[in-house]
Write a structure and sequence with these properties.
By secondary structure, this protein is mostly helical. It contains 20 helices and two strands. About 60% of the residues lie in helices and about 0% in strands. The chain is globular.
């Protein structure tokens, strides 16, 4: 069996790095002596290029470290929808990774045969097909390219990085440490406005577009950090740090005033209880089916109960929680229903292939009904898209898109659960305790679309799930993915 893709250096490559560094140093010195001062910036470029060639793993960790601090230029006076510096760096990783894959002869066969990878390939194939039939080809092409970049870097590449199990822990903390810095900035900005509910919507700008994206990342990492905190194999110091970060994440999520995140955490708790209590899959699926049937049978009574709720979003947390079920006077909820209705009408017009990836925000305006509009309704999706990662793809890519998303979640959860029950206890501190509960969050909120924008962290943790479902023997001793020769 071929040895697999090596994204880490061997001794010959390290010697080559030193030789090239010496040559470059001589060239730079000569240029500076000749008055070519613009060459002063080349060392940084050289270092990045050399790391991409010889220590791609360090570049990945660097990308993770700067991601929470990246600024979305769309939220500035420049107005370009690019996050700096993370997205240009990510695109560079994307190019280097596939060059290495092509030179090595392709991806490891075990990756391609894994159930999650198969679903992802189907997802991208359907994405590409609906791009070819899109009503706005340029918009859809950009969306597809971005999706492919995210999947390549934060799923396929990280599967190789995670061949060293310790890199999973390093990766998570590399994201969490700067995230705490963003939280500090957000809380300070929020405090300047008196911690009001309205100010919570924009306190995290320019690092996140709005409070929903910010809270999505916070709440996804809460069960992960809780796993570190209760891990008896960790040192007392590391557990204390984890408890501190866990407390910060909880406080930040509460202050975000994001009801979807709160609901998602409850769903994550339910998902984790199902797993830890070892409830059989047949019982779980039967329970889900029963809930769906009961919801359908009593839909009229449920709707009447929701319409009788007159609590609106406010600074009072009790009222804010109660407003979750207000579909009669709460602008946020009414607007969400309006966007959902538009997505369904768009699907009815193009049920098979949809309008094309990324087109919802440009098309939904003409599908609004005056009677369904809220006080915050617009025609260009300001403040969010379809507010549903099932109905949004339904309108953009037809009936197959939400089915593929549901299958992806189901396959990920099932393969992880099955594998952890059978063997490889070594992975449990990473997958079982820290990542499995995140699946409940995916099921419980509107964020199962794993591979775009602020969801880099989610698609990365999907890679950890896959290591729990069979990618656990990738080591040089077994002829799999080569681990690093040196510590990161």
């Amino acid at each position: 069996m071929r040895e697999g893709l090596n994204i880490f250096p061997d001794k010959a490559q390290i010697r080559g790095f030193y030789i090239l560094t010496a040559i470059f140093g001589l060239f730079l010195t000569y240029g500076m002596l000749q008055g070519m001062t613009f060459l002063a910036g080349l060392p940084l470029v050289f270092i990045i290029l050399m790391l991409m060639v010889f220590r791609l793993d360090l570049i990945v960790f660097a990308a993770v470290l700067i991601t929470p601090f990246s600024i979305n230029l769309a939220q500035t006076s420049i107005g370009i929808g690019v996050s700096l510096p993370s997205e240009p760096l990510m695109f560079g990783l994307f190019v280097i990774f596939w060059l290495k894959v092509c030179l090595d002869g392709g991806l490891d066969a075990r990756i391609l045969k894994h159930p999650v990878t198969i679903v992802i390939v189907i997802h991208m194939a359907w994405y590409l097909l609906t791009t070819l039939t899109s009503s706005m080809p340029t918009v859809s092409f950009k969306s597809t390219l971005a999706r492919f970049c995210y999947i390549s870097v934060f799923y396929f590449m990280l599967l190789y990085l995670f061949s060293n199990m310790e890199n999973i822990k390093r990766f998570i903390w590399a994201y969490l440490i700067p995230l705490v810095g963003v939280i500090a900035y957000t809380i300070f900005t929020h405090a300047m406005e008196g911690f009001s509910e309205e100010a919570a919507h924009t306190a995290m700008v320019p690092f996140y577009n709005d409070h929903t994206a910010y809270a999505a990342v916070l709440s996804f990492f809460i069960p992960v950090v809780l796993g570190f905190a209760i891990d008896k194999e960790g040192s007392k110091r590391s557990r204390n740090i984890a408890w501190t970060v866990f407390s910060v994440l909880i406080v930040a999520t509460i202050l975000s005033y994001t009801r979807a995140a709160w609901v998602g955490l409850v769903a994550a708790l339910g998902c984790s209880l199902i797993f830890f209590l070892r409830i059989k899959s047949a019982i779980v699926y039967s329970g889900i089916a029963m809930v769906i049937v009961l919801a359908f049978l009593f839909r009229t009574q449920i709707t009447m109960q929701l319409e009788s709720n007159d609590q609106v979003s406010s600074d009072d947390y009790a009222s804010h929680v109660q407003s979750i079920g207000n579909i009669s006077s709460d602008d946020s909820n009414i607007e969400r229903l309006n966007r959902w209705a538009c997505a369904i009408r768009m699907f009815q017009d193009r049920p098979v292939l949809g309008f094309g990836p990324g087109t919802y925000m440009f098309k939904y305006g003409s599908y609004q009904k005056f009677s369904e509009r809220s006080g915050i309704s617009t025609n260009f999706a300001e403040g969010g898209g379809s507010h549903s990662e099932y109905l949004g793809p339904l309108s953009e890519q037809g009936f197959m898109a939400p089915l593929i998303i549901l299958i992806l979640i189901g396959v990920t959860v099932q393969t992880t659960s099955n594998y952890l029950k059978e063997n490889n206890q070594q992975l449990q501190p990473y997958s079982c305790k820290k990542c499995f509960t995140g699946s409940g969050y995916l099921l419980g909120t509107r964020y199962p679309q794993l591979f775009s924008g602020y969801r880099k962290s989610l698609s990365s943790l999907l890679g950890i799930h896959c290591h729990s479902g069979g990618f656990t023997n990738f080591s040089s001793s077994t002829g799999g993915i080569n681990p690093p020769d040196t510590e990161c």
